[in-house]
Structure formats: structure tokens, C-alpha cells
Amino acid sequence: MDPVKIIIFVAAFLLLLLLGRKLSGAGESQIQIPPLPEPPSPQTLSSNLYEIVDEEKEPAPAVIGADIPFPVAVPPITRSPDGRYSRPEFLNYHFETIDLVTGPTDPSCFYDHLWVQTRDLDHGFPWTNKFTVATPAGLERVMKEEALAALYLDSETIIVPKWNLEAIMGAMVQQVIKAYREPNDAEEPAQSHVNPES
Q1: How far apart (Å, rounded) are the C-alpha atoms in residues 40 and 37?
Q2: Whole domain around residue 138: which residue ranges?
Q3: Is 2 inside a domain boundary?
Q4: What is the mean pLDDT of each run of 10 residues along the chain (198 residues)?
Q5: Could you tell me if residue 43 is inside a domain?
Q6: 85 in helix, strand or coil?
Q7: pTM over 0.70
Q8: Less CB within 10 Å around the terminal CB: N or C of the chain?
């Protein structure tokens, strides 16, 4: 064979090989990588921060008494001829751990503290009362958990058989009104006893 024919044959073979690769490469599917999204603006990031990561979302603040309707009817505030009011104004209330809307996890076994804010209309200043609220089973659980042989409960205690916000608040309102009137009633005999005109 002639060397010139061999060179032409190899060149033609290489040319056909390159042409075949070129044509077959056009028919192959190629993976298209989408372009990266534009980074969000700082305003979008700060407003959506808690929506992106649910685990780090702060819990919603607990509902307080001022957020919901008062669960019991309260007698109207009246003023006696001597200028004293019949009761304080109820401003707000909440439990330390129990949610006012959902109640305790076990309605028949709980122990918590109820905080009630009232305002004395005679002087205009607010004050806060603390009530212990529990079921008998809740008291028993606390005594077992804290290994108590006895549990002292002061007069500001409300015991209920099961969770009933209306009953709890009704007992609290009665106690607050009673305590509000008692100091005034106690003053009357002392003043009338001291006053020579009586």
C-alpha cells in the first residue's frame, strides 16, 4: 500500500470520528442547572424570620384576663351616701402556668396560683391579690411530689372538684368584694364608738 493512501485513509477516519462525536453530542440530554435565586432583601428576611424556622419561633404570649370577656357577672359599682364604693374595679387576672383558654392538662388534678389585679376607686391605686387554686387531687399530687407531711393553705385559697373558670372566678370575686367591705365595716363601730354624738 501506498503511504499516501494510508495517511488519507487515517485522516478520513479521524474526520468521520470527530464528525460522529459532534453529531451524537447534540442528541444527548444535558442537565440544566437553574440559576441561583436572588438573595432576599433584609426587610423580607427580618419579617419572615420566624416563619422560616418553626422550631425557633417564639411561643405566642399567654392570654390574660383583659384579653377575654370576664367569665362571671360582677355587681355594679355603687357609691354609698358617705362616699365609699361597694367594690373595687377588676382590671386583670392570670394564672402562673395554666392557660385561661385551654385550662390545665388534667382538669381534675391541678395546683396553680391566680393573680388578680384590682383598683381601689377611693384612692385610684391598683393592687394585686394572689389566690391558690387547686383540686383535691392536685393538692395530693403536690404533697407527694414535695414529700410534705402537711400543707398550710392561707385564706386566699379556692378548692374546686375540677377545672371550672367560671366557678373559680365567681369565688374569687366574692372573696375580693368581701375583703374590700370588711375594713370599712370594721371602721364604722370604732368611729361610732369614739364619736360622742352617736
Answers
A1: 9
A2: 65-194
A3: no
A4: 74 73 59 50 43 46 75 88 86 90 93 92 85 94 92 87 94 90 52 37
A5: no
A6: strand
A7: no
A8: N
